[in-house]
Specification:
With about 140 residues, this protein is α+β, with helices and mostly antiparallel strands. About 25% of the residues lie in helices and about 25% in strands.
Length: about 140
């Protein structure tokens, strides 16, 4: 199963993290299995289309939406763009549900709740991605 899910650099991970204990053991921290899927989902959502030189269409179109007022139409658009990006760029999962909610004390932050099933073993996973509509709103 790990062959299907893959193994690769952890995200986000600066290159000075080590996989092994001990002095001067530097390199990229690796993730594998279900953690690799979550890192891949995070990377897709965190990348704006056009950000990568060699693959300009990679990413999720939610980054074109900052400063929009939070309305039901906006949340539906976010769901559509997330579904489109994850369906295109992450073939190891089947999306079950995408829910978008804004936080009451901080309406500039949308919480994107993604429920998915791994195709390799039918395990159900979940992750929440915080998307800030206004830069610097935390």
């Amino acid at each position: 199963m790990s062959d299907f899910l893959g193994k690769g650099p952890s995200f986000p991970s600066p290159p000075w993290f080590a996989d092994q204990a001990g002095p001067k053991r530097y390199g990229f921290k690796l993730s594998e299995g279900e953690d690799k899927i979550k890192h891949s989902l995070w990377l897709i959502l965190a990348t704006a289309p056009g950000e990568r030189v060699m693959r300009a269409d990679f990413g999720c179109g939610i980054h074109e939406l900052p400063f929009e007022p939070v309305t039901p139409a906006l949340t539906a658009l976010v769901v559509d763009r997330v579904r489109t990006a994850l369906t295109r760029w992450e073939p190891r999962i089947d999306l079950l549900k995408i829910d978008v909610q804004s936080l009451e004390p901080n309406p500039e932050c949308l919480l994107i709740d993604i429920t998915y099933r791994l195709r390799a073993n039918n395990a159900v996973g979940n992750m929440v991605y915080p998307f800030y509509l206004q830069e610097g709103a935390a």
